[in-house]
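Thread title: Can someone regenerate the structure for this chain?

I was given the following input by a collaborator and told the matching structure tokens would be attached. They weren't. Posting the sequence so someone can regenerate them.
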Amino acid sequence: MGFPVKHIDFGGEKRPVKYGMNALAIINQTARELSIELSEIKENGENVDFGLVRGIVYAGLLEGARAEKKEFTLTPEDVGDFLDDDQDKSEEFMLQMLEQMPKSKKAIAPEGAV
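Best answer:
Regenerated them for you:
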């Protein structure tokens, strides 16, 4: 049912991370606040706004904790502090999000349809 919860070492703990619809809604809201289109996120995560990166990590952690019914006490600023300590860690979260992000499905007209 839905996307599985993954676990990522972050901030000295193995933490649950999930990028289902709820996390994507949070990320979308963050992107709107920053005037960024989510479609601008490239497969490799290059050129992503720092605020959006922090929001992506935060949303995955928040939803991972919620999915496992664990208390979640981190603030976005806590997430930023952990990213300061391990700047490469954001790439792991980005890849996880891109893996779970719904792919666009184009409607295919039946043969002979006009």
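The mean pLDDT is 84.
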